[in-house]
Amino acid sequence: MAIDYYAFHFILDPSLQEPLLGLLSELPFESFEETEDRLLAYLPATVAPESLTPELESIKEQIPFQLSIELVPGQNWNEIWESNFSPIQVGSFCGIRAEFHPSFGSEVRHELCIQPRMAFGTGHHETTYMMIETMETLPLSNADVLDYGAGTGILAILAARLGARSVDALEIEAIACENARENCQANDTGLVNVVEGTLEKVLGRQYDIVLANINRHVLLESFAPLYGMLRPGGILLISGILSTDREIVEDASLAAGFQTTQIRAKGQWIAVQLHRN
Length: 277
Fold this sequence. Notes:
Blueprint: E1 5-11, H1 17-24, E2 31-34, E3 38-44, H2 53-62, E4 66-72, H3 77-84, E5 88-90, E6 94-97, E7 110-113, H4 126-135, E8 144-148, H5 154-161, E9 166-171, H6 174-186, E10 192-196, E11 207-213, H7 216-229, E12 230-242, H8 246-256, E13 258-266, E14 269-276
Parallel strand pairs: 6-7, 8-9, 8-11, 9-10, 11-12
Antiparallel strand pairs: 1-3, 1-4, 2-3, 5-6, 12-14, 13-14
């Protein structure tokens, strides 16, 4: 069934788009799109736009913006994405395209075909790019992997391609789970197990590697349970973190028992690789 969304058009200085995105990620928006002159945030039409007014007014005191809101009928969503979604290449390691784009051919070792719909995670955002970039160096072969906050399933699919033994793709949004399953099928990765729900749905399972491209608030609440779900020597790779939040995230991960082994930065975002003793 097609789902309607409200598109929030935030018009502001381009240098402020990423800090604004970090703040908006705490609100019930399902997807974001960055353009040259604005940041778009998509809210399910089941949520009243005016319910976000207090939070948006508070954010506006920190980051000035102009806002307009339009209703986007569900049947128009694919057309919108197709007009804005261009292929992206992460070095010679990985290429991400939609089904209507030509293949990368021999330019990349791994090619993923993603139809994003309303799910976040196409590789275009700095956080997803850095996750993919780091995955090239992770010991994913024969590993049990959790993709926490899977979105389109792009990281779970890549983990399967890189030889993981098992992959759980955990996602709270039903429409994103549906999209992730479609993308797994399109990429011939039947190994991926898409799970709808919160972290409680996979508590008790043990992993060698956890991939978590998710917002800061969720990460801060999840460090302790994720530490318990990782085997000794396990790796937690996280992103969705503004560089200004580096200290609070590192302190929280250290308190949970993790050690930081690597930090990447792209734009105003960072990706952090953590190790469980």
